[in-house]
Hints:
By secondary structure, this protein is of the alpha+beta class. Helix content is 27%, strand content 26%. Helix 7 (278-291) packs across helix 9.
Amino acid sequence: MYISPKGHEAVDETVEFLKALTEAHGVPGYESEVRALLREYLEPLGTVTQDKLGSLICCQDGDGPRVMIAGHMDEIGFMVRYVTDEGFLKFLQLGGWWDQVLLGQRVVIKTHKGDVIGVIGAKPPHLLDAEERDKVVKKKDMFIDIGATSQEEVAAAGVRVGDPVVPDSSFAVLANPKTYLSKAFDNRIGCAVVVDVLRGFNNGNGRPNELYGVATVMEEVGVRGATTSVRAVNPDVAIILESDIAGDVPGIKDEECNVRLGGGPSVLVFDARMIPNLKLRDLIIDTAAELGISLQFNAMQGGATDGAAIHLHETGVPTVVVGVPARHIHSHGAIIHRKDYDDTVRLISAVVARLDADIVAGLTG
């Protein structure tokens, strides 16, 4: 951020961009709001199409191999599955939630009459016996309270079974002004990298390939949008942009995860459903070294990304996952570092600029 000659702070366009993306609502299967926002950002950058599940595909024409860069637009959330006689909402999860991060959190129910605010509750601690107090409350024992006292009041508010439920959480710049707090950095941060890389190539120069920027749907419930969008793109090579797990919090040993905020982009060397193409991984490493960008490395044994579907398309697609580290993902508030984001955009842009026909052919040679 810079200070204008009149002494007023100038708007940091990246901060405003990330704020808009993360505050938009869009849980798996209900991505219409964030999709509409992403379409606004993508349409000036290329030809935008949409597959039949709802993933957006922005193509920048060119000669050479088809390069796919992808981030998923959906965020974790919930769905209303039952309304009690007393007007409480029972819910199911869309994506992975840990029980211990839910109680007392505000949520937004997206209804046909508009947004309804609620809070996740359970049996109050004052009424728990000693044994119950020592146990984590399970989601099945939780409910969403919208202040209703009957099914009729819930219906009058517009709430129906099947309505999506979104975390109620706003974007904030923290005490360290290079760190940002928000919901949905998993994985609006990947979508943001896709958009910013496309912006850099919008004049058509410096790119020996045909570039596809993709914002996929329903990653958090089984990489579904990646499965369909990769068929539409039929890429020769793919880079998945994600949020990665930062391990620089109390209780995590370096041997478990040594990824740090501000330590640079991370490369996923293993996950439960994909091992990266080794030559593409090395191209990332070499390019980062030439640019003076610090890289970090992570292995995720309990999870996967859109790369799981994309690297298995047809006879195989050389694929790698690059992430922006984030603390506290899969909660109401994650934290990222601006330097990690900027370096990821710079790194991916440089790698895309090198992916000509010879380099891509050599990835599987």
